[in-house]
Amino acid sequence: MAKKAEESGELGLSLVTVRRTLAVIEMLADSDAGMSLSDIARRLDVNKNIALRILMTLEEENYLYRHVESKFYFVGFKVSNLGLRVLSRNRLLGQCQPVLRQLADDCGELVLFSVLDQGEPRWVMAAVGRRQRLQVDPVTPMAPHATATGKAWLSTLPDDQVARIVDGRLEALTPYTVTTLEALLAQLAEIRRSGLALSNQENEAGIAAIATPIWTAADAAEAKARRCVGFVSITAPISRATPEDFNRFGGLVRDCAARLGDAWPLPEAESFAPSQSLMPHGLIV
Q1: pLDDT tens per residue, range 94-111
Q2: CA–CA separation, 149 vs 283, rounded Å?
Q3: Which sequence ranges form a coiled-coil region, renumbered to this chain (predicted)?
Q4: C-alpha angle with apex 178: 161 to 234, nearest 5 degrees?
Q5: Which range among 60-69, 133-142, 250-259 shows the weakest confidence by mean pLDDT?
Q6: Among 23-27, 127-131, 207-211, which is the least confidently predicted range?
Q7: Helix H segments across the chain?
């Protein structure tokens, strides 16, 4: 009896450690600025020694890293790689890659592909066109109100949900960034009408992007409406891409999204359908 009680106690302690470890990964994934040891210990409601042991183990396994100067902890690429491996195993990326490659060849610019994961856009793949390369950090979070993919995502949501998401977050990143809810909602209404979202130097000076949602086809047999499952965008510097180019890019991203949505695997469509989560994070370009 004593042995069983001891084993039961050890199992309970192990499960608590697992939960705390997963909580650390989740809180760091949601933190753009990283977190200190003290912050993490406080959020876990444990002393610093316990938090430090968890952090050191995750750091050793490359799931997170510590900034040299600030000593803050950040989630590492390995966490993102786990999701990419799941997508690859489900053949989603392999199926999408030739379609995105063709789009990059047709436009000559940077093509970015995002999926909805727990209701939020996540960058998963890029294809570079034949023209001069444009450098984009695929793990830098970007404000949804200032980016093409972000606005395309917001356009798929009700206005009241959009208001909750952007509340207090309409920061002016450039002189062209929309900074009022009224102006943003007016843009979203136009995006819903046209199916295209444009960011013209709103996120970064000299850079423009156009994006559109990827919708699965409606299932008449099961009376299921179409769902937004991802986004495809083209990004280019305005020094070489003219307004006429972006008019052409709009047709290209629409055609690409239609092809991806038509062939989207149904189990993944369920997995990446929008949820009730309200706070965006991850790459939005």
Answers
A1: 778 889 999 999 999 999
A2: 9
A3: none
A4: 85
A5: 133-142
A6: 127-131
A7: 2-29, 37-44, 48-60, 77-89, 92-107, 148-154, 159-166, 181-194, 243-262, 266-271
* Rg of the chain taking only CA atoms, in angstroms: 21
Give tens-digit pLDDT for 207-233: 999 999 999 876 544 445 778 989 999
Place of tokens 């939960």: 19
> Both tokens of residue 208?
């423009």
Task: Tell me the torsion sign for CA atoms 269, 275, 280, 281.
Answer: negative
For residues 272 and 116, is the Cβ–Cβ distance under 8 A? yes
Report how far residue 222's alpha carbon sits from residue 275's, in angstroms, rounded to the nearest whole number: 20
Q: Cα dihedral angle (261, 215, 202, 103), rounded to 10 degrees? A: 10
Contact assessment for residue 188 and residue 162, using Cβ atoms and an 8 Å cutoff: yes
Specify the higher pLDDT residue, 229 or 278: 229
What are the backbone angles phi and psi of residue 206, rounded to the nearest 5°?
A: 85, 0
Q: Which residues contact 140 (CB under 8 A, 6 or more apart)?
A: 283
Strand 197-200: give its sheet, edge to edge: 120-127, 110-117, 228-237, 207-215, 197-200
Q: What CA–CA distance (Å, rounded) separates 64 from 26?
A: 11
Which phi and psi angles does 27 have, rounded to 5°? -70, -35
Residue carrying structure tokens 């938090």 = 51
What amino acid occupies position 192? R
SS3 readout for 140-191: CCCCCCCCHHHHHHHCCCCHHHHHHHHCCCCCCCCCCCCCCHHHHHHHHHHH
Tally of CA atoms within 13 A in the half-sphere of 68 that contains its CB: 0
